[in-house]
Amino acid sequence: MNVEAVRSLRVACVALVLISGAARAGAFFEDPAVELNKDFVEGPQWKEGKTTLPGLPDPAHLMEVQVPDASDNTYYFDTESLVVGQDGVTRLTLVTRHRGGGETVTFEGIRCVTAEYRIYGIANGEGWTPPRQNPWRPIHLGRYKDLRAVLYTSVLCKEGFPMTPERVIKRLRYPPDEPTY
Known about the structure:
Layout: H1 3-30, E1 62-65, E2 74-78, E3 83-84, E4 89-97, E5 103-111, E6 116-123, E7 128-129, E8 137-138, H2 147-156, E9 157-158, E10 161-162, H3 165-173
Antiparallel strand pairs: 1-2, 2-4, 3-4, 4-5, 5-6, 6-7, 6-8, 9-10
Keywords: Signal
Protein name: CNP1-like uncharacterized domain-containing protein
Signal peptide: 1-25
């Protein structure tokens, strides 16, 4: 069999599999034994709550977050700023201490339901400066060296839902035997 014939056969097989899968999906919804939920009403559109920037973090309230194989940076969050809003967003102050001695402090929100984050403020030494742009951005969960991915998978969220601040602090003080990142 020549190469062109093998390619044609592969394409035909893939098309057959796709068509049969689509046909089965259609049959599922046409099956009289499958009852659609006619009472379902889509909930209201999610609306983000108002965010109030906290005071700058007190070093006495910083708790370290272990980020495996990370750079020489050390990561902390301020336990006093940790809050889960009525909108389901976990908000907290993050502190990154850089190898060279510098420090970056941000106040951020993490939305567990969508695996997104948003920066509300960047510390300037005297207070907070709002970022020029602050859209919701995706958390790249495949990056094990990423602070936000670790926060999402191992600290703040469980199965797409935010954990209580008390549970988060307990989880950091007494981490599970097996990391989840």
